[in-house]
Amino acid sequence: MWGTILKGSLLFVAAMLLLSMTGCSAYATEATEFGELSSDDFTYESRCRQCHAIIYSDWEGTMHFNAYLDPFYLEEVKVASEDTDGLVDEFCSRCHTPIGVVSGEIPPIDGSEMSDIAKLGVQCDFCHVVSGSNGTGNAPFTVTPGNTKWGPFDDSRSAYHDSEYLELYTQSEYCGMCHLVIHPVNGLVIDDTYTSWQESQYAEDEVVCQDCHMTDGITEFEANPGRAGSGAPKREHISSHDIVGANAFIPPMFGASSVADMAVERLQRAATLEISTPEIASAGEEVMIEAAITNSGAGHNIPTGVSEIRQMWLEVVVTDSEGNEIYNAGTLDADGNIEEAKIIYNNVLGDSNGSATDSFWLADRVLEDNRIGPKETVTEEHTFTLPDNVAYPLTVETSLNYRSAPQYMIDHLMGEDTEVPVISMNKELAIIYDPSTPIDERGQPRSSESTSTPGFSVFIALAALSITMYIFKRK
Ligand code: HEC
Ligand code: HEC
Ligand code: HEC
Ligand code: HEC
Ligand code: HEC
């Protein structure tokens, strides 16, 4: 039953997508089907590395390199396959091991029939033999393996292979083949990275995925002059292949901690955080902390991708000067789970009973969507009543945090020794003073001027004293 609607709906969804697409009809082609090719048609990345060494080292260890071997994926696809009696096997694998699918080596989902090359995820001689696409979403690529490599240059020459220019490589629609996941049976959009970009100001301004993800600019295009291969001419721009998002969890498992560092840097450029607090507060008073979070650097929602699994949240901790905690929200408990966060920024999917599920293959509706759109600002408010006998001043520490998955989910899938790293995307600090402290127009205590003066006079006095002692000693 799932199976019969599956095929029909796939066609329906593909047709709808094609209709809704604009500007791509020029290279619209038939998607390559399951088993149409053989894995022997593809060339190992080690061959490409001989001339494209820098590009190779960029790509190595990234999530494209890991797309199939990623243990989080392998655990999830096992569950998905069991839940659907194997009906999602080809669907999931089409993006995570495209060579595995077009060569008919997967299913079976356990990988027992797979060649080594199919296990290398999204790789050179998959991406560069894409010769067209049937729109975006659910991987409608056409692949033509062989001597021709398609790419962004219209004047490229290599002794080893023929080169062919295809504009698609320079457009978001190339990435949108896979970075748009639609439920094959009910049409629910599971990963809307491409569409959230398409509806944003970035699309209007022609800032594409490659501008941010394939240049050092991170939030905008930055030219990177260099050579694309050995013996190649110098060009004004060649793109980086360390296509990194926010995943600092999986790459270190493959020894690629530098990829994780790049993900942290990207997360730290994605959002700004501003907090406002009262400058003074007295016991018994209700104190309100307002935090404004802006998606300032990402060309799509934050978080994006499998955002039903991702978690972004604000941690707020207020302490007095003796270190007593007065308020907290969003800190982790002993098991690594988030306690009392005001909002977890992600989306919650529901199954046909309306219950929340993170098994997106079982979902047919969106229950909640708290993600922050490109250039959007959201605010959250935290209030607490100030107890008696606090030691002033109070420190308000806030951190906007991100992690790839809830800890309980990873405990369940991978065992309790695997800790999901929490990344602070941005931090802000504020101080609340005793009401008797005079505050200046900048919100600083006036006494700070007078405290700096005594500090300085103490320094002068000490200096004078040591000079006197020095003179005294010499005598
Ligand atoms: C996810 C798909 C993907 C993978 C994997 C990938 N590439 Fe690319 N590659 C692209 C895209 C897209 C561009 C064009 C980017 C642009 O110009 O905006 C590109 C550009 C290139 C270029 C032109 C020079 C440049 O850097 O702009 C070369 C050469 C190249 N890739 C070789 C490789 C090799 C070798 C590998 C494997 C180590 C590889 N690519 C892996 C998608 C990919
Ligand atoms: C013998 C050296 C050599 C090998 C091996 C090699 N390339 Fe190239 N490749 C080059 C040179 C040189 C260029 C020209 C770069 C330029 O025009 O700036 C090039 C260009 C490219 C381009 C750009 C094409 C365009 O029109 O935009 C792509 C994509 C590419 N190679 C992919 C690959 C892939 C994938 C492999 C492995 C299957 C590979 N290359 C193996 C030397 C090589
Ligand atoms: C204006 C720059 C910009 C553009 C354009 C952009 N991104 Fe991003 N992307 C970011 C930043 C910054 C992050 C890190 C914050 C986050 O996770 O969203 C990111 C994260 C991601 C992630 C990881 C998300 C997660 O939480 O797992 C993916 C996947 C991604 N981008 C894909 C794309 C694709 C595909 C496109 C084009 C349709 C695109 N990006 C366009 C800046 C950009
Ligand atoms: C053949 C399908 C495919 C294509 C084409 C593709 N990707 Fe991906 N991409 C994937 C898969 C699958 C993963 C995730 C693997 C995982 O997490 O297990 C991924 C991961 C990523 C990540 C890392 C996400 C993170 O959380 O860190 C970024 C960023 C990204 N892709 C951007 C791009 C961009 C930009 C393009 C276009 C130049 C592109 N991708 C083209 C399939 C694809
Ligand atoms: C149309 C392409 C596509 C299909 C189909 C697809 N995925 Fe993915 N998957 C991706 C991309 C792209 C990412 C990376 C997005 C991000 O970083 O958030 C991803 C990420 C994931 C992740 C997160 C991995 C990590 O390390 O954080 C899991 C788990 C996953 N997919 C499982 C599945 C399962 C199970 C299925 C089938 C039910 C499936 N995917 C179908 C493209 C796809």
Protein traits:
single chain, about 475 residues, alpha+beta, Immunoglobulin-like, 3 domains, 14 helices, 18 strands, globular, disordered N terminus, binds heme C, transmembrane, transmembrane helix, Cytochrome c554 and c-prime
The average pLDDT value, as a whole number, equals 90
The unique ligands bound to this protein are: heme C
Structural class: alpha+beta
Number of domains: 3
Largest sheet data: 4 strands, antiparallel
Tell me the strand order in the biggest sheet. 12-11-17-18
Number of helices: 14
Count of individual beta strands:
18
Terminus-to-terminus distance? 104 Å
In percent terms, what proportion of residues is strand? 15-25%
Considering DSSP H and I runs of 4 or more, what fraction of the residues is helical? 25-40%
Question: Over all CA atoms, what is the radius of gyration?
Answer: 28 Å
Uncertain runs are: 1-25, 448-462
Which geometry do the CA atoms define? Answer: globular
Keywords: Membrane, Transmembrane, Transmembrane helix
Protein name: Cytochrome c554 and c-prime
Pfam family, one: Cytochrome_C554
Domain Cytochrome c-552/4: 48-128
